[in-house]
Amino acid sequence: MSFGLGSTVAATQNKDVELPQPPSDSVSELSFSPKANYIAASAWDNQTRIWEIGPNGQSIPKAAIQHEAPALCVDWSLDGTKVLSGGCDKAGRMLDVTTGQQAQVAVHDAPIRSCRFVEGPGNAQLAVTGSWDKTVRFWDLRQQNPVHVYQLGERCYVMDSSGPLLVIGSADRKLHVFDMNNPSTPFRVIDSPLKFQTRSIGCFTVSSSPGFCVGSIEGRCQIQYIEEKQLSSSFSFKCHRVDKEVYSLNAISFHPTFGTFSTAGSDGTINFWDKESKQRLKAFPSVGFPITSTAFNADGSIFAYSIGYDWHKGYQEHRPGSKVAIMLQSVNPNDIKPKPAGIKTKR
Amino acid sequence: MGKKKRKELKPWCWYCDREFEDEKVLFDHQRIKHFKCTECGKKLNTAGGMVVHMDQVHKMKCMTVSNALPGRESTDIEIFGMEGVPEADLQAHYDKVSGGGQRNKRAKIDVSALTPDQIKQQMEAFKQQQQMAPYGAPAPAPYGAPPAGPFPGPAPGYHVQAGGPPYGMPGPYGMPPPAPYMPPGGGYPYSPRPGMPPAGIPQYGAPPFGAPGPHWGPPRPPMPVGGTPLPPRPAGPTPPPPMHPMPPPPTQPAYSEPPAGAVSYSDAIPAVPEVAAVTGPTIPPPVSGPESPVTPSMSTSKAGSASIYMVYSDNDVSVEEKRALNPKYAFSEN
Q1: Does B300 touch chain A (CB under 8 A)?
Q2: Measured in Å, how far apart are chain A's first and last C-alpha atoms?
Q3: Closest CA to A145 of A178, A114, A105
């Protein structure tokens, strides 16, 4: 491993495998196919790339979507056949991985910050794109115009979905919760329980009590339940703080089966958490560079994370050519399995 | 009573006789191993806390501390980390660890009548001494200097040398170590050293029972300085604070304080806060960062929050928006 930070990365994460031919600039988002071990990564070098991960961890680059500006988001369709990526060129571009066909399926008036495939009413597959033009647009992928435009009132910063749940975070710290059985109006719009800019969202619907997890730039994470009777169970906790420094919580990924989740921050650390027992399951040492995005694969056996500068110290700390990598970790079930409630550790 | 002056003594769990590298680890160990509710697994900070929890939440009487050595299952002794460990056991453990009966008594006493000048003088010497041996000499005498009258020892400034061994603790300790300077009839086992400055000054004296873990130095309870707040310890079977038997007659009103309120820093001794900083390694250094905006939510967080700051603090604009403005990433419409 001969990279700028190779020694650090190798020393602390030596068991993790690095994807070959990584992007030349920071990864903005990682997404695993829900059907197979394909991973897509959108990056600031204007490309969204797709790799196939073999059974032994060796990976092969398969395809790429070319943007005319940095790609900011990527998501796989629910059937695992399509990849949608949005970027600063204000375009949502979709690649059909079965046919190799590429097309622009979404357009905004400003960069597309976040995108998700969701299942709308009648099992119709919808693409949702959120943009800094303060709108969220729903596309059925057949028409040129969106089937629905939702006015966020502020710039879209982050979005995540799971099952019928879609949660959008906007620049005014509002959280727009959608039930995709009724995409035309939000189920609920709430102020973020966190006092600072919403940075990451992870939805969970696997457990009996659906909800979502919000991370802010102030190293804090909120578990927010949705159902009325669960609302009071919501709670927040601090994370990704090193001594006196408080880092952004850049990414939240839920494990597909256990319902536990990961957080990753600008501090370069990843933690696994169990929200039921309110316990940290695993803390990984810092990789020495910000983690920009994370993802679990469909069966939760692989955890992917991207290392790269996330601009949290602005341009002056930007080192062109510095480390960019996508790492794959074979998930040790003992690290991510929920632990029995009640043995909470002191944090 | 937990005396924190033995720097060479590793944090050690009284319940199971195990040593730890770090006091934090010890705290966690005790929470997990000994203070965990057997019903719901909730971890408490102390045995007393566990008893109250079991009683109030589960309506059960908790009589024993789990995973404890035989004879140490009592929930009556309030132990938190090394705080509250019976002195005899602590000493026994210490002897065992240090491989012999070497008593490493530190200077703890200065029960002489001093004038402010003397005190200042001694402060200087004390500071020098501190610098030479940072852990050398904490735990000065408590409270206002009593008159030399009741004490048979040489009046001004008898004390024990910092780091010096020289006095044998009498027998098993029914009383905590300061006991020897209780006004006795008998001679003091330690020898006065008139030439030596006392190892401390009365006013900020940490009564040996008060100092928690690493916070020896300034007295704990009323001090708002950083560090992990310890749970209050109800008076258990632990011996009463040793200073109560002290004859309180103050010859120097300015420097004598009633025992309970004895923690005030006397304005007359400006050097005290400095020394506090020297002797209290856990006191957070002064807040440095001018770039440290204290955020509202942080002000509600726990100790030491005053100087934490967000690495990225622009609440209104995301990093991606800023990054996208960079010419390198610019998008031309054509």
Answers
A1: no
A2: 35
A3: A105
Domain count, chain B: 1
- Taken in order B187, B191, B195, B200, the sign of the CA dihedral is negative
Is A68 touching B (CB cutoff 8 A)? yes
* Residue burial B157-167, b: 16+ Cβ < 10 Å; e: rest: bbbbbbbbeee
Farthest-apart Cα atoms in chain A, separation: 53
The count of other CB atoms within 10 Å of the CB of residue A178 is: 25
Q: What is the pLDDT of residues B273-309, one digit of tens each?
A: 333 333 333 333 333 333 333 333 333 344 445 578 9
Tell me if B61 is assigned to some domain.
yes
Q: Would you place residue A49 in the very low, low, confident or very high pLDDT band (cuts 50, 70, 90)?
A: very high
Residue type, B221: P
- Which residue of chain B has the CA closest to A29? B320
Greater pLDDT, B270 or B234: B234
Superfamily of domain A17-336: YVTN repeat-like/Quinoprotein amine dehydrogenase (2.130.10.10)
Q: Is residue B56 part of a domain?
A: yes
- Domain residues for the domain of B16 are 12-99
User: B319 to chain A nearest CA, in Å?
Assistant: 6
* pLDDT in the model for residue B53: 87
> Is B128 within the bounds of a domain?
no
Q: Hey, of B314, B319, B326, B329, which one would you mutate to test binding to chain A, going by the most A CBs within 10 A of its CB?
A: B319
> What is the DSSP secondary structure assignment for residue B30, as one 8-state letter?
I
Mutate which: A339, A346, A347, vs B, most B CBs within 10 A: A346
Q: Which of A88, A244, A343 sits opposite B307 (nearest CB)?
A: A244
Q: Is B43 part of any domain?
A: yes
pTM of the prediction? Answer: 0.57
